[in-house]
Amino acid sequence: MNAYLSNLNQIESWFFSLAEKQAFFLPRKTQGINYRFEFIDHQQPLDLFSYKPTILPPGKNIFPDGEILFTYNKDNNGHYHFHQGTAIHSQLLAGVRACDLKGIYLLDKAFSDGTKDSHYLQRREKTDIIAFNCTTPCDDHCFCEAAQSLDFQTGADIFITPLFPISSNKEVHKKQQCLLEILTPRGAELIKSLVSQKCSNPQKLIKQALENRPKPFGRQFLTPVKQLSKVIHQEDAESIYQQYAERCFSCGTCNLVCPTCYCFDTKDELNLDGNSGQKTRHWDACLNPGFAEVAGGHNFRADPAARQRHRVRRKFDYLPQRFEQTFCTGCGRCGRQCTTGIDIFDIVNDVYLSIQESKE
User: Fold this and answer.
1) What is the pTM of this model?
2) HEC string of the chain?
3) Using CA of residue 228, residue 229, residue 234, residue 235, what is the dihedral sign?
4) Is the pLDDT of residue 173 over 70?
């Protein structure tokens, strides 16, 4: 695919023009220091590269909470009729960092596995993605390089790398150039409205831009992630999970902000007329006390420590065996949003240390 050069002024104008044609989401600062993927506003300057990680990952725009799966009604003859629920429209997600892009890629894998989830896949088919490369860690919580997410491009239509140092002074950047790699035919269609020039040697510019990246990039596991997954698969560290469980409120926030958690529950909502209603699905969380409860009141993971262990193994053992990819992207959201500061990065490092010490 081709590559192009354009500056931030031109990219901002391009984004505003794209937003006139379809729903366009970009990280925007809300009250305080938080960022969310929201509709862009012509009245507000865009923070394209120095924004803090959003509370919810962009994959939630493809897998929304409270989605109406279908509605139904009974006619006068007693026959039921079913209709698709929420209308699915095209959307564009821009400013998607590599860790969140990998999160979307893993959701694609999960929802395509076995019986395909048509609701997710229809929305994914109508979603264009403009991803941004990282030249500096987004904050102190990230460990994307350790989780093998840094530079991840699969699933993006356009991948943008800034060819300048990132700082908080946005005005300095306005005439600085970015390299835009076109990865899909849809990306080639999107870029037609951008004022840009074709780049003949993109790899050279990318190499120069990434030469000054911090080394290591963000936090690092005590052992490479593949080895870490092997250790977690083969060994247990009950005392470590118990230590973290003592601090855990079992609120499920870590699951809800995770870019690769895809568990959900469904609800049947019957209208008062008794003849119509709808089925909706809602995000669920394996840290919630009742997540593994079944008929008869039996709970497979009533103990908080068992839920912590399940979450870690799901990210680094069960799902990697199934999809050959670690299901933690290193975005740092779980530790960033946890009320008591529980971070899966700390848990897996402590599990590894505990196992190594037990072998000495």
Assistant:
1) 0.94
2) CCEEEEEHHHHHHHHHHHHCCCEEEEEEECCCCCEEEEECCCCCCCCCCCCCCCCCCHHHHCCCCCEEEEEEEECCCCCEEEEECCCCCCEEEEEEEHHHHHHHHHHHHHHHCCCCCHHHHHHHHCEEEEEECCCCCCCCCCCCCCCCCCCCCCCCCEEEEECCCCCCCHHHHCCCEEEEEECCHHHHHHHHHCCCEECCCHHHHHHHHHCCCCCCCCCCCCCCHHHHHHHHHHCCCHHHHHHHHCCCCCCCHHHHCCCCCCCEEEEEEECCCCCEEEEEEEECCCCCCCCCECCCCCECCCCHHHHHHHHHHHHHHHHHHHHCCCCCCCCCHHHHHCCCCCCHHHHHHHHHHHHHHHHC
3) positive
4) no
The answer to whether 37 touches 54, Cβ cutoff 8 Å, is yes
Tokens of 358: 């037990």
CA distance 260 to 98: 13
Q: What is the pLDDT of residues 11-36, one digit of tens each?
A: 999 999 999 999 999 999 887 778 99
214 and 137 Cβ atoms separated by less than 8 Å: yes
pLDDT, tens digit, for every residue of 46-73?
888 888 899 999 999 999 999 999 999 9
Q: Is the pLDDT of residue 168 over 60?
A: no
- Amino acid sitting at position 22: Q
Q: Which is more confident, 223 or 175?
A: 223
Tell me the CB-side half-sphere exposure of residue 319, using CA atoms within 13 A: 22
Q: How many CB atoms lie within 10 A of CB 293?
A: 14
Which residues, in sequence order, are CB contacts of 217 under 8 Å at separation 6+? Answer: 134, 137, 144, 145, 150
| Among 100, 173, 161, 168, CA closest to 135 | 161
